[in-house]
Amino acid sequence: MGRQTTAKADERRRRRNSAKSKAKASALKSADLKSGGSKSGGSKSSGHKSGGQKPTSTTSAKTPTARQPTASRSAGTSSAGKKPVGKSGAGKNSAGRTVGGMKSTSATSAKSAPTVTTPKPKKTSTGSAKSPGSSARREFPGRAVFASLRREFARVSAYPLTTYYIVLVAVLALTGLGLVMVLSASSITSYDGGAGSSFAYFNKQAGFAAIGIVLMIGGSFVPLSLWRRLAWPALGLGVVMQAAVFIPGLGKSTKGNANWIAIGTFQLQPSEFLKIALAVWLGCVLANKFGKMTTFGHAMIPVVPGILFAVGLIAAGNDLGTALVLMAMAFVCLLIGGYPWRYFALLIGSMAAAVTFFVLSSENRLRRIEALLTGHADQSATDITGQAWQSNHGLFSLASGGWLGVGLGASREKWSWLPEAHNDFIFAIIGEELGLLGSLAVVLVFAILAYGMFRIIMRSSSLFVQITTAGLFAWLIGQAGINIGVVTGLLPVIGLPLPFVSYGGSSIIASLLAVGVLLSFARTEAGADSAIKVHKDRMRSSFAVLARRKVRK
Q1: pLDDT in tens, 469-480
Q2: What is the rounded CA–CA span in Å between residue 424 and residue 431?
Q3: What is the CB neighbour count within 10 angstroms for residue 227?
Q4: Does pLDDT of 376 surpass 90?
Q5: Mapping DSSP to helix (H, G, I), strand (E, B) and coil, where does residue 119 land?
Q6: Which of 162, 194, 236, 288 gets the highest tally of CB atoms within 10 A of its CB?
Q7: Per-residue DSSP letters for 54-114?
Q8: Which residues contact 353 (CB under 8 A, 6 or more apart)?
Q9: 3-state DSSP assignment of residue 319
């Protein structure tokens, strides 16, 4: 019994020692893998198992193997002499053999093969290792540029005064271009008209533009509350001035339109200023009545009478083109102001019936529509020297300009071939002298102005600002679209100037004053006051630096 118990205890010890050696070997192997090295060149050796002998432990490379002394032999068991451990050349293990049912192990060689470290594969931007034949992913070179432009556009767009500068720069660009083109288009007419100078119309237009710019700057500083208080007085004054054109001796008719007030040599077209008054008045009234126009009385009064007075007085003066612009302004303001649809449809239907009556009752307007339909498609159907003369020569002027134009000042149509070359048909002279690219540049600037006005509507929290800006948008951008459509033959000749560009004192002054209203609205955008204060501080410090430099000199 004693021998069997001793044998079982020895067997348990051998199993425990074998498990420990395997755990130590696996730990060494994982450590080698983590360090990037390869497996040890030395070979594993199996321990020599005998009764009472502890198995030898496997060591790492370049470490001599320590031998453990064997225990005494077990009783009744034939002992086998322990083989000397030979050197394992080329990394080969010595084989263990079983003696009396017990395995004998041999230790690893004193020196094993050196460890070879394999470099880790480089990782690409996606995190995967490059294959030897794969090439790096090439990014589109313009992608970074586009991303940078998007970030810059977002940064500039978020600036509180961006809308202010968009409107201001676009209007100043159009006004400057208008002065240049008025000088070019009117030089022949001005000299031939008895003024004795090619700069007569230009000098007048420059003076009108200066007055308009002063009013624009002054209007930009008017607070929002003051514009609302001025709504009713402005509309009343505009209606009175428009009614004054019918007073004998005060009103003046030009080319069939009784739309002028003449005091000596001073002439004024009150309908241009009535456009501003109507937009501001509709913005104030519709903002105050928003959500309350549920009954017929609330919806009709005072909105409908005010619109009818303004449009009716202009239409009575035989100026249907300006009346159409005021109708468009009223339509847009009512749409933005939440006017009830059932009354809205009734009002629009009444306006359409009135326009149809004025067109059918005028032989001149019917001929213009006929010239639009037949004058350009079939030259034999209409005499080109008659009703279609102006529209046809406008197309001739555009066609002769080509891509880049004949050159500034080199127009041939302005030599008394194209009527109103410096006024209603100045866009045709732009197309002839500056070409298609110049014409598209003018359209682009108007589009930028429209974008600035759209920003005012979208970024303002005041319904009054939104409705008034929408009305001014319908006036300035809508009238520009009508004028360009007339010149290009898409619409019949109506007789509306191109805002900021065409010759006309009342037109340029009223248009710039309307821009002053828009700039005043743009200054109410959130954060604009702080940005304006920063600009004032910068200007003050800049002037202070200049003053110190002047004193030092």
Answers
A1: 999 999 999 999
A2: 14
A3: 20
A4: no
A5: coil
A6: 162
A7: PPPPPP-TT-PPPPPPP-PPPTT----PPPPPPP-GGGPPPPP-EETTEEEE-PPPSS-PP
A8: none
A9: coil
Sign of the CA dihedral with 495 first, then 498, 502, and 504 last: positive
Reading the block at residue 494, the tokens are: 């109506």
CA neighbor of 178 nearest in space, from 442, 523, 388: 442
Cβ burial 266-281 (10 Å sphere, 16+ → b, else e)? eebbbbbbbbbbbbbb
Run of H or E including 263: strand 257-263
DSSP element (H, E) containing 202 = helix 200-220
Tokens read off for 515: 């821009």
Q: Predicted confidence band at 111 (pLDDT cuts at 50, 70, 90)?
A: very low
Q: What is the pLDDT of residues 480-517, one digit of tens each?
A: 999 999 999 899 988 899 999 999 999 999 999 999 99
Order of all β-strands in the sheet with 257-263: 251-254, 257-263, 266-268
> Pick from 301, 272, 287, 270: which is nearest to 333 by CA?
287
HEC sequence for 433-467: HHHHHHHHHHHHHHHHHHHHHHHHHHHCCCHHHHH
Contact 498, 521 (CB under 8 A): no
* C-alpha span between 263 and 252 (Å, rounded): 10
* Rg of the chain taking only CA atoms, in angstroms: 47
Expressed in angstroms, the distance from the first to the final Cα of the chain is 121
Residue pair 333/304 in contact (Cβ under 8 Å)? The answer is: no
Buried b (16+ CB within 10 A) or exposed e, 300-309: eeebbebbbb
> Residues for the chain: how many in total?
553
